[in-house]
Amino acid sequence: MEIRIQGVSKRYFSEGKTITALDDVNLTIPANQIFTLLGPSGCGKTTLLRCVVGLETPDSGEIRIGDEVVWSREKDIAVPPEKRGLGMVFQTYAIWPHMNVFDNVAYPLQVRRLPGDVIRQKVEKTLRFVRMEGFEKRPATKLSGGQQQRVALARALVGEPKVILFDEPLSNLDAKLREETRKELRTFLSELKITAVYVTHDRVEALALSDTIAVMREGRIIEVGTPRKIYFDADHRFVADFIGRANLVKAKVRGHEDGHTIVDCGLGAIACQGRDLPAGSEVTLCIRPEFIRIARGEGGAGRNVVSGRVESLIFVGETYEGEIRIGNELVLAKIDPDAGVKEGDPVRFSLDPAHCLLLAI
Amino acid sequence: MDRSRSKLTFSLILIVGVLTVGPVVMLILGSFSEGLTAFGRFTLDKYVEAYTDPALLDVIVNTTVFVLGSSLLSTILALFLAYLNNRTDIPFKFLFKILSIVPMMIPHLLFSVSWALLLNPSNGMINLALKNVLSLESAPFNVYSLWGMILVEGLLDLPIAYLIIAPAMASFDVALEESSRVFGAGTWRTLVRVTLPVLRPAILAAFILGVVRSLASFAVPSVIGMPGRVYVLATHLYQMIATGFATDYGKAAAVGMSVLAASVTLIVVYRALTAESEKYVTISGRGYRPTVVELKAARIPLFLVVAALSFIMAVLPVAVLFYTSFVPYSMVPSARAFSMMSLRHWTAVLTDPLSLLSLKNSLFLGVAGATLGVVLSIFVAYVIVKVKTRAAGILESLSYLSFSFPGIVIGVGFMWFFVQTPLYATLWALLIGYIATYLPYGIRPLASAFVQIHSHLEESSQVCGARPLTTMRRIIVPLLVPGIVSAWILMATMFVRELTLSVVLSRPGTEVLAVQILRFADDGLWGRLSALGIIMIGISTSLVVIATLIGAQFRAEESAG
Q: ipTM of the predicted structure?
């Protein structure tokens, strides 16, 4: 089911100050996709999710789920959360400690007064789906973090909602479990025909899980796109910087040449991805460290050849992270462990214009 | 949603405000007004009269010695016990649990009476026994003295001091001590330079709470102090309002204002200290037990000390009362004494209309008062924990205010308050006064229960499609049940034994158990007193058992679906 959010704003008053949590948000979440709201903490992503589910009341605007208007200031519609028929996985999982696994999962069906054998069937099916079969009688307090996460997912799925919402569901797990659960979640969700809205501040999680990502900052949606688009081809400097490590270099457009835009910057004249920018405009050149590869016997050929000096080298396991000094600029690059360079060595590398991204601001 | 919440907050502020600030306002007004009411012409006479009373100086000296001495005793004992339990290899650690909980079941009044029965100079059992054995002329001990008062009050305040110090001791980060050892300090030096200073906020908090409690204490000063003509502020006030030819509430209020002010100040300091001690406490969370100090040769002697203390605190008072209720007059346990045992005192009590009335009244106040008190506490605790507005903060301060009210002082305020209403001299006056004074006892367990109910637990029920009432019934109430049960138990046991407020508010027809027991003590009817006291303990214990069973039943039903 599609979710349409139009002109939604929300302000808080706390200790005499006004905090704008959502600032005129317009967003369409397409049906049957994994859609992620990504942003730093305090950007309003959780508030937006809570407005969709009905736990928070916006100050203005309209929210539609499918064909139904669930909230509208003008039309004076406010459907309470229990009537919206959604599923949600909370950050804390919110597994009720006084019930066992079965009762936790059966709850959404019990409150709908379904017959007992139907409930039992559906709970069994859902628990099998999240690979928690056999845990029905286990008290909720005796579950590990990963198990709680699965029970929470089962509870959100058991009522077969058309939309399921996730509020940072992996942030309470340790790093290794988080990675496993992320993969599992991706598998579970792609097996179902369901619209999933996922809130996170973890960019890797967002990139790995989503069909579409919306990046938020200070209560606004900054940019919406596929993970590849957001990572390689962001329109905004904030998005490019937030989604991954990036070298951001001030540059000025010189002109255009066979599909590339040529800029002048601290690295020299660099041919970049073509952008429709007038000559002379101030831009930011964005180069991800993984596309600055310095390997022995390489470099010097092709376009965009840059030479500099290795200022520092840090070994981080699969690679060295090197800072390379080029005039006044300091650029972060990945260097193969077997490249054989040392601190202070002069180096040369070339940049593929396809990976030199220009940002308007 | 927000609007209904703030409406709730404001009506609660109004209710709790009337209950706690109301009597204080009446007290202030009364202390400045002419005549016996609170609304007479303005005058300073009461203050002049109260503070130029030549007896007052003695009373203040006595009070200071009594309050500081008993608090020091309870704090040192608590520190000693907490250290032994948490940090040494002393055997039978379950004794510490008994020491910290069981004495709370024994009303202060009865605890004091049992010591009077043991150590009074004319026929105290220990005195009689020692006189026989050592063929002494006079009794070796006189409990009716300042020292006797300090001993008994110190023992009474021991459990609460222990409950403050022990958790701080248990969650103490041993690395702090270990590093002191690494840098060359010995066990003793580490204890003095590191352990005790780090625990200082908790120790001070226990001491200050002891001061507040002994300042408000009425049982010990009346049962043990008054027969020896040792008067402290509480009994000085009691004399002014309950005995003598001309009761003078205004003068009592004038003296009471200083007691109240001191008490409120101390509670403010106490709350700051407990907040501080929570900051100091560093739980390492690495799951290893702190290094245990080996007591070696001292192990058994120290254990005997703890065992003796447990016996004195938990077994002896009940045993003494039980024994006294069966023997005709005070005598040392012997074959003769056992042969003379009878149910005389029990039949006397159970046919005494006044005792039966007080029994009925106390039972009603315990059950109805605790139930109403818990209902109010649920709402107050909900607002304090879940509605985090400034108004909720005001409600929190208001509701903990009564914690610092000495019952006998605030009782005078309540009396003036109720005289203005038709409730005066009814059981409802006592009921309202009890709830107001003991509100923190209900709020505290419920507030911690609410803290455990993360808002996500409610919200997730809502998202699952449950209506608000269903969420209330299936999620919130079951999770609250443990808190409700302990709040009810605490309030009910407090109400059944309540003494200090009752001596001021109780009128003919509204006698309660503690007042009746005090009357028996004044008349020296120790046998009847003991029988009624055992009945009082019996009622408290049954209330605890019943409430626990109901709570367990409720949980069993929920988990059965």
A: 0.76
